[in-house]
Amino acid sequence: MALWGRRSLGALRLWGPGGERPGPVRAPQSPQSRVWRPVCAGADGVRARAATEPRWREPGSVIGGRRAISLSVGASGIFGSGGNSEKEKLSLQDIAELIRVRACQKVVVMVGAGISTPSGIPDFRSPGSGLYSNLQQYNIPYPEAIFELDFFSHNPKPFFTLAKELYPGNYRPNATHYFLRLLHDKGLLLRLYTQNIDGLERVSGIPTSKLVEAHGTFASATCTVCRRSCPGEDFWADVMADRVPCCPVCTGIVKPDIVFFGEPLPQRFLLHVVDFPMADLLLILGTSLEVEPFASLSEAVRSTVPRLLINRDLVGPFTWRPRSRDVTQLGDVIHSIERLVELLGWTEEMQDLVQRETGKLDRQDR
Ligand code: APR
Ligand code: ZN
Predict the structure, then answer these.
(1) Cα radius of gyration (the chain)
(2) What per-residue string of b and e applies to 131-150 under the rule 16 or more CB within 10 Å gives b?
(3) Per-residue pLDDT tens digits for 298-329
(4) Which of 56, 87, 256, 259 has the fewest CB atoms below 10 angstroms from its CB?
(5) Residue 285: which of 30, 82, 107 has the closest Cα?
(6) Measuring from each residue's beta carbon to the nearest atom of ligand 1, which residues come in under 6 Å?
(7) What is the pLDDT of residues 132-189, one digit of tens each?
(8) pLDDT tens digit string along 225-258?
(9) Does the pLDDT of residue 16 top 60, yes or no?
(10) Residue 244 CB neighbour total at 10 angstroms
């Protein structure tokens, strides 16, 4: 399945009705009319094991000395009936409690460029500060062209100039990345789906087995002619010296394994077919949910699974197709993460982790 920008919203229908194998179809232009239904069919059509509904307690009972979440109880347990009644509305505190008491243990996370802006890396679409508002210097026909193969083969310079600015060695993870690392360390992270190419999830210590870098990575590169693969470090010297990296075998241009518009997403992206039906909590952080097929994953969890959006503004289906168990925390991502960490009672652990990891990076930089 290919990466589509909003411009060429040829979104793929991630799942067909009734379990048929997914296949590329041209989706209607406006998200509202995007119609699809997730079915728990694995890549080979095997039904993914439905997550076992976690054990559950009466509201008001005490869990570990704390008030239990006053959610609806009953056969649907923690996930409620998915109804819209006010009493079922969840809060950030409820989400924290679900994580804290490990009522949710298969947390899937989707992130975008908004989690890296606190590290100093511009996102793409924030008016004024976003990358797409600051490409005048590259003399390109329209912003997304910088990530388009046709334009790249015609003129690779703008992309490599941008790559030099985004060089992973120039930036460090922030509290958001370390919160996700802590989620992993506590055995609660089922998978982290990232659109980011800055590699900060890896730098924060999240193992690649837990990562799906849906829009690729700078960690490796491929020759555009003979398809020879090479590790990222082989081409950075050229990029930092403002040279276009060329293949030592056939002199073709070497392109980092960043997914360009129209290119297929990495095979690992298919893990979503099993992960999302298994998830018992979905966190969506710092993304405009503008780009398919990644954006559609936001609706791929079961309808009764709580979804928490942490973002400056309301985006994607949280605006036009909200669900009864959605929680939205709008504003600065760091403030929201710090609030969530406080509600979880993880503040001290986070401080220790950040201190340890920062010390490691300082030693590497010496
Ligand atoms: N706190 C909270 N939200 C923030 C912050 C912040 N500090 N900084 C940015 N945001 C929000 C923005 O308001 C926006 O809603 O994060 C979102 C970032 O959206 P985009 O810039 O569109 O980035 P992203 O969603 O990752 O873009 C997806 O588009 O061009 C492609 O391949 C590219 O992977 C990228 C994809
Ligand atoms: Zn080559």
Answers:
(1) 21
(2) beeebeeeebeebbbbbbee
(3) 999 999 999 999 999 999 999 999 999 999 99
(4) 87
(5) 107
(6) 5, 112-114, 117-118, 123-126, 130, 147, 195, 215, 286-288, 290-291, 311-313, 315, 332-333
(7) 888 888 888 898 899 999 999 999 999 999 899 888 778 999 999 999 999 999 999 9
(8) 999 999 988 889 999 999 999 999 999 999 999 9
(9) no
(10) 15
In the chain, which ranges are E strands?
62-63, 66-67, 107-111, 189-194, 211-213, 216-223, 229-231, 254-258, 281-285, 307-311, 326-330
User: How far does residue 95's CA lie from ligand 1's centre (Å)?
Assistant: 23
- Which among 112, 164, 113, 170 is positioned nearest to 137, based on CA atoms? 164
Cα 155 to ligand 2 centre (Å): 18
Q: Which ligand is nearest to the CA of 216?
A: 1
Give catalytic status of residue 154 as yes or no.
Answer: no
Catalytically annotated residue among 177, 184, 215, 272:
215
Residue 253 Cα, ligand 1 centroid: separation in angstroms?
A: 29
pLDDT at residue number 365: 83
* One-letter identity of residue 98: L
Q: How many CA atoms lie within 13 A of 117 on its CB side?
A: 20
Alpha-carbon gap, residue 25 to 325, rounded angstroms: 29
**DSSP 8-state symbol, 77:** G
Q: What one-letter code names the amino acid at 119? A: S
